[in-house]
Each structure stands twice: as C-alpha cells, then as structure tokens.
TrEMBL record, chain A:
It comes from the Bacteria. This is Uncharacterized protein. The chain crosses the membrane at residues 21-45, 57-78. Keywords: Membrane, Transmembrane, Transmembrane helix. It comes from Streptomyces tropicalis.
Automatic annotation (TrEMBL), chain B:
This is Sodium:solute symporter family protein. It is a multi-pass membrane protein. It is found in: Membrane. It comes from the Bacteria. Keywords: Membrane, Transmembrane, Transmembrane helix. Belongs to the sodium:solute symporter (SSF) (TC 2.A.21) family.
C-alpha cells in the first residue's frame, strides 16, 4: 500500500509488507482478538452472561477477530503488493490546469 | 439532536476498555505517520497520487459516509419505523452507486479533474463553479463541526467526559493524521475504521437477535407491542417513514424523491465520496470503487436497522418512547431518551467489558471517519477550486501542498469552533445540515443534463443550480410554517423532487435562448462528444479478469439488493 518506493530490495519488500494496510488491520484485530479471547476464557461474570442471554460474548468475538486477523495477514503474505510500473504521468495536473484556464 | 443529560446511559467502562480504545488511537496516529512518507506533491496529498487499489477506495467510499451521525440516525430510524428504513440503502444508495460507477465515473476520472467542482468549471464555466465550490466548502467544515459536536455529546453521555475535552481531543487527532498523511492517511484510516465499526455492529446484531429469540422472536415482539406493526414489518409502502398517507404516493415519494433524486444527487455529486474514487490507481479501479463499496453497503443496513429494532423492543425506555411517539408524533424524547440513543442503550445492556471498549472505539471511529472525510474534501476544494483558480494561479506545486496543509488546520479549527457554537444552538446546526442537503438534488439534475445534452449552456448550469436550490428551500419553508402537511421524512423527498424538476425545466429553457459552448471545449465532458475509447478502460494486468468488469459487479449488486428487497417485502 505504501508502495511508492523505487528500490525493491528484499528488505524494502519486507518493509512494504509490514506497512501494508492489510498487515496493519491484521495487527489491530490480532491484539483485540487476543485480549478478548483471554478475557472470555478467564470466565465471564454471571451478570455479564445474563446480559447476552448466556453467550460468552468476549470469547466468541475474540475468536472471530483472531480468525479475521489471520485471514488478512495471510492475504497480505500470499499476495504482497507489487510496485506498479511508473504510471503517474507528470502532465496530469498541467493538462488539467491548462484546460481550466 | 442529542439532549439527554438526565438519562442514565453511563457505560460501566473499566481500565481494560480504556486500554482497548487507546490501542485503536495508537493505530490511527501510526497510520498518519506511515502515510506521511509518501506525500511529496499536492497530488499525493489531495488525491493519494491516484495510486489506491479498488478494494481500499471502495471501503473508504462507504466509510466516509458511515459517520456516526449516519449510524445513530439510521438505528434511530430502525427503532422508530422498522423495515422501511432499508430504502435509504436498497432504493437509495445502491442504485446510485451503480450509476456513479457505470455512467458518471468515466467522465470524472477520464477528464482528469481533481474535484467535482472542477468538472463543473470545465463543463459550465465559472458561474456554476463558484456557486458549487463555495457552498460545498462551507458545508463541509460546518458538517465536520456537527460531527464533532455529536461526538462530544455521546462521549459525555457514555464516559462522562466534559464536552470541551472530547471536542478538542477528537479534533486534534483528526487534525494530526490528515495533516501528516493527507488523503492517504484519511483513506487508510477509513478502511480500518470500517472494520472496527463492523466489530461494533456485528456483535450487537447477533447478541441482540439472540436475546429477543431470533428474527421470528423480534417479529413476534413487534407484532405484539405496537399498533402499526404491519407497517414496521414490511418495507413497502413505508407510509410511516414518508409521512405520506396514501400508499401509492408514498411509494412514488420513496422511489423518486429518496431514490432517484436525493440519493443519486448525494452519491454521484458529493465530492467527499467521489474523491475516494478519484484516488484510485486506474480508470478500472475508479469505476469499481463505488461498485465494490455497494456490496457491503447493501448488507450493512441489516446490521444497522436490526439493532435499532431490537433496542426498541428490549429497552423499556425506548418502548415507552415508541408508544408515546405513536400516540403523538411530536414526542421525540421521553425521560431524556430519544431514538438516537438506541445504539448506546444496546451497548450498555448487551456487551460485557472488553467487547464494550472495542464497541466504544468503533463509535468514536465512526465520528472521526466522518470528520476526516469532510476535512480532506474541504482542503482539496478550497486549494484547487478556490485558491488556485481564483486567488493565486500558477504557483509551484509545493506552494499548493503547503496551502493544503494550512487549510487542513483552518478546516479543523473552524470545525472545532462550530462544534462549540453548536453546543449552544443545537437546532440551528440541525437546520444547517438540512440546508446543505438542498444543494445536492439540483446538482444531480445539472450534472445529468450536462453530461448527456451538449446544447446545455453555461448560463443554464448556474441558473438551474440556484433555482433548484431555491425551490427545495421553499418546500422546506412551506412545511415548517405549516402550509404543507407532511410529517416524517416526506418533506425532504418532496423538496428534492421539486428541486430536480425545476432545475431540469429551467436549464432547458435557458439553454434554448443562450449560446452553448463549442464541441471542442466539451470533448471528454459530454457523452456524445467523448470517443468510446476514452470512456472504457484498460482490462489488462491488475485490471484483468471477468470478476473485475464493472458491468458484472453492477449486475451482481443490483441482484443482491433486489433479492433482499423481495425477502423483506
């Protein structure tokens, strides 16, 4: 995603995967999922279970988020961003400007 | 709007909840810092250098609109009206997004304009352009202020923070990341916010449905509790939503007013949305942006409306309000609770600590997504359409990049100021928001006519816009002063239809007596003067594949919306 880096060495490729939006989203939900799963597994208070009609909301949401994070992480790893060939045509704004004038 | 000091909606947030909220804000600011690395020119700052993949712009496209005002407002509609609220999405947004992707995007992206007002400038000249850019820029900062004010009331309600603190804190966070990373930071955050908002809505929907005994349980409870249950449990004719007593007229009001005019006007000409598509990396990706966004958009209403319906059944305060409202429509709040509080009531009543923190983060995310979208489209329009076009022409690019940064600060400061003022004049802000809604309906009429009728003249463009807006305002005034009698949302549908019709008629009349622009000036801006080759896009490389064809995506999402419409008939 943050791909406008001209050099494509192994390390910059790794940096790109790290800064890929998909990786960031996976990291956020990885943290959230872990915290919730631990909280849920540690047990919910009866009052909180009653709130949700007997469901352990933290546990299930946590597991759901971990699954989501895994899917996004896998997507980022399996289909890394490729640096597109130089496509930004420098005359874009000039023509746009010229025509408005 | 949100006045509820005395209702005890305070959430029992614990340190773990605050920690989870803090994690979210760390990510938001981190994205701003990362995106900063690739801002080298004004194009990078304002349009992300036209480099975004379609799934990112597609999600940002709907996220920019999925502000908290939208979530609170639509759950409120779900609680109050039930199923007819789906029309905002299935009759309103989705067909309009398809139209934008298939028909209008080739002109926007293909003509390489950098904003919607700039398209007006090239098609109709300065008059229409100036009217539109000034009204748009003004509307954006004021709406950003409304967003911020609404956020402060919700934070005050849920967590007990003083309003000034949450206004300043949220304003500062949005300022920092849009200032650093420009549109890229706003877009990346919108995509992340989309998923955090989902993490708020999905558990609420599932747990809520579980509590009321599934969909059938919900239907049974609504059936038993209210007199107009049939209206709430069928999407058509939606007379409770429109406030138009006659079924046929109500359906016409929904299809033409809400669907054709209001929603087409909003989704196809509002630069806040279109800007996301303009930042896509190719014509194909730009056309797919609204189409990809339309899929989650179609399903999202279920996750917004169902919690609203559940809240009205589960919460004794809301059911009492609903009964009172059915007896006397002027009752909008009871004991400090209004329909706008549906989602907060559900969060309080259903979610355990932990999940609660993430849900609060989701709600805050929604507020900031809205504000960042307003600020990032404001700085683009003011820089390119007002400053560069009328004030300081022909400066080097760095100058405009710097201007954009300064304007981001100015926009945020004005929004913060507006938020403080709105605290004292809540109703005025409500009214302002309605007022700026008036600009969209005639805008769509002018765009469609201008894109397909090359004879339409610059004078017609400007006069049509002004007359259309004036007629929408007139209808609104007539309704407010009691000369027209339409309750519910019917008045705004009616106003939109009037604006559209007046704009079209007047534009045609004026065009016939004034001089049109030459064909050469209109190449690429009008359908008949644009070569087919310039309207279609490359289908090679990352744009190849049948599943990436805009027509295929469009048919798919329309089929989905139709199927859902039939299922919830």
């Amino acid at each position: 995603m943050f791909e406008n880096r001209p050099r494509r060495t192994a390390s910059s490729q790794r940096a790109q995967t790290l800064f890929d939006l998909r990786t960031i989203i996976a990291a956020l939900f990885g943290i959230y999922g872990t915290v919730l799963t631990v909280m849920g597994a540690a047990g919910q208070m009866p009052a909180e279970l009653r709130k949700a009609g007997g469901w352990n909301v933290n546990l299930w949401c946590g597991l759901g988020m971990l699954a989501f994070a895994t899917a996004f992480g896998a997507w980022a790893l399996l289909r890394p961003v490729s640096v597109p060939p130089a496509e930004a045509d420098p005359d874009t704004r000039d023509t746009a400007l010229a025509r408005t004038g | 709007m949100l006045t509820l000091a005395d209702a005890n909606l305070r959430l029992n947030a614990r340190p773990i909840d605050y920690a989870l909220i803090a994690v979210y804000f760390a990510f938001v600011l981190g994205i701003g810092l990362l995106a900063r690395r690739k801002v080298a020119s004004s194009m990078d700052f304002f349009l992300s250098g036209r480099s975004m993949p379609a799934w990112v712009t597609g999600l940002a496209f709907i996220s920019a609109n999925l502000a908290a005002v939208e979530i609170l407002g639509m759950t409120a509609d779900g609680a109050q009206y039930g199923l007819p609220s789906v029309h905002y999405y299935w009759i309103g947004a989705v067909p309009a997004m398809v139209f934008l992707g298939l028909v209008m995007m080739p002109f926007y992206y293909g003509s390489k304009v950098r904003s919607v007002p700039e398209f007006l400038l090239r098609r109709f000249g300065r008059f229409a352009h100036l009217v539109n850019s000034v009204s748009f820029a003004l509307a954006q900062v004021l709406i950003a202020g409304v967003n911020l004010y609404a956020l402060s009331t919700v934070v005050n309600l849920l967590l007990g923070w003083p309003s000034w603190l949450s206004i300043l804190a949220a304003g500062a966070i949005v300022l920092v990341y849009t200032l650093l990373g420009g549109l890229s930071a706003a877009i990346y955050n919108e995509v992340m916010q989309f998923f955090v908002i989902l993490a708020l809505l999905l558990p609420l929907t599932l747990v809520g449905l579980h509590r009321v005994g599934g969909w059938n349980g919900l239907v049974g409870r609504i059936d038993g509790s209210s007199g107009d249950a049939a209206l709430q449990l069928h999407s058509w004719p939606g007379t409770n939503l429109t406030g138009i007593g006659d079924s046929t007229l109500s359906v016409l009001g929904i299809v033409f007013g809400l669907g054709f005019v209001l929603s087409f006007g909003y989704w196809t000409t509002n630069f806040t949305e279109v800007q996301r598509a303009l930042s896509a990396r190719s014509m194909s990706a730009a056309r797919r942006t609204p189409l990809i966004g339309a899929y989650p958009k179609t399903l999202l209403i279920l996750l917004i409306m169902i919690p609203g319906m559940v809240a009205a059944v589960l919460s004794p305060q809301l059911s009492a309000l609903k009964a009172a409202n059915a007896a006397d429509p002027s009752v909008q709040s009871l004991g400090g609770v209004s329909f706008n509080n549906s989602i907060e009531l559900l969060m309080r009543d259903l979610l355990p600590n932990g999940m609660l923190g993430i849900a609060i983060a989701g709600l805050l995310a929604a507020f900031m997504a809205g504000m960042a979208a307003n600020v990032s489209s404001f700085n683009t329009v003011v820089t390119y359409d007002i400053w560069q076009t009328y004030v300081k022409k022909d400066r080097p690019d760095e100058y405009y990049l710097r201007t954009g940064r300064v304007l981001t600060v100015v926009g945020c400061l004005v929004a913060i100021g507006t938020a403080f003022i709105a605290g004292n004049f809540g109703n005025i802000m409500d009214y302002l928001q309605t007022l700026f809604g008036f600009f969209n309906a005639p805008l769509f009429a002018t765009f469609v006519l201008g894109m397909f009728w090359k004879r339409m003249t610059p004078a017609a463009g400007g006069i049509g816009l002004i007359a259309g807006t004036a007629s929408a305002i007139t209808i609104d005034m007539l309704n407010r002063t009691g000369i027209l009698h339409v309750s519910g949302q019917g008045a705004s549908f009616l106003g939109a239809i009037a604006a559209f019709v007046v704009d079209i008629l007047l534009s045609v009349a004026v065009s016939l007596v004034t001089r049109p622009r030459t064909d050469a000036e209109l190449t690429g801006l009008v359908w008949s003067l644009t070569r087919r080759g310039d309207r279609v896009h490359e289908a090679t490389g990352e744009d190849a594949g049948w599943y990436r064809r805009p027509a295929v995506l469009a048919v798919g999402v329309l089929a989905l919306a139709t199927a859902l419409n039939i299922a919830f008939w």
